[in-house]
Amino acid sequence: MADSRLRRTLLFVPGNMPSMLQNVPLFKCDSVIIDLEDAVNHAEKDAARNLVRRFLKSWKERNKEVLVRINPLYTKWGHDDLKAILPEMPDAIRFPMCETPEMALELDAELTQYEAANGLKPGHFGILPSIETVKSVLNAYAIATSTKRIFGLAFGAEDYTASMGIARTNSGEDLVHPRMMVVMAAKAAGLQAIDSIFSDINDMEALRRETELVKRFGYTGKCLVNPRQIDVIHEVFAPKQEEIDYALEVVEAIRQAQEMGTGVISLKGKMVDAPIVKRAIHTLRVAYAQGLTDTPVDEEILNG
Amino acid sequence: MEIVKKGVAGTMQSSDLMVFVEPADSLKVEIESTVIKQFGHLIQAKVDEVLVKNNVTRGFIRLTDRGALDYAIEARIETALQRASAARA
To answer: Are residues A17 and B13, on separate chains, in Cβ contact within 8 Å?
Structure first.
């Protein structure tokens, strides 16, 4: 499911905290990840499951993508999490500690079974696997291509550094290699690359630097733990005016090319073809989402 | 649902509530809330609805509410009942 939905900010919200849950409709993030895993004590897994289920049932007018981070399926909670949550129709499952394609396929099979039993379209539920251990980084491409439900890879720095036996720093040089591995695997599979959380909520400058860095690597979104981090991340992922202007020119050029019956044209002496148009469309989509342009992107332009 | 032992669920954080249930010969509900004057009747109605839905006819149910919305009231009562029920005994 290599969809093109805009996912700049994916906000984690603890599943057992009503004061955060009920503000979910108000947060300006693109996606929310309601957490049943690390943010919930072992003794409260049942309570969080009930609370999230009831919250999702009560939230009628959803205004953002909803993911639920379940517990890994090898724990005693994972399957019960799915059983409780799927009837409330989340858009996708954030799948933690996904180390092998087989693990992704186990979840895929369970989702397929649920969809078939309930008359849902096959592939209705997406999967966003967490690539957060050394093993999962090494298996990233195999995981990315294991099932069509996977629309992105989410790098998880906290568990990754733990699995390496190293400390996470705000500067991030310890994470360059795994970050590159994950983004390369995602791009090779045609998926989105989503970066890890930045946990120091008081250091907005370090958050900005890290987001700028991962944007240069090719990441198009970032997870976060505090709604105060949303604006900084959106600002970093926002295209600059000259990028928007160029993207508009590209789209106009390719429109003219198509009128002339060709898929390639020259713009200011440079060739414009499908990959350039794809990048321009992404730029315009992000720009539109942030109110930087007035017109929604005509995605059909890519298909001629 | 049969309450066979004590069960507790929830927290004392704002927008949450704590629910205490224990076995009793008849059904008794006690509600304490920071918003009892404005919303006491609605909380009571929600509690009654959840108890009926879960077939609870006996037991002592006590709520300490910190301004929780309906979905949280329902979820916390459900959890306390599950923890106190025969299936978990």
So the answer is: yes
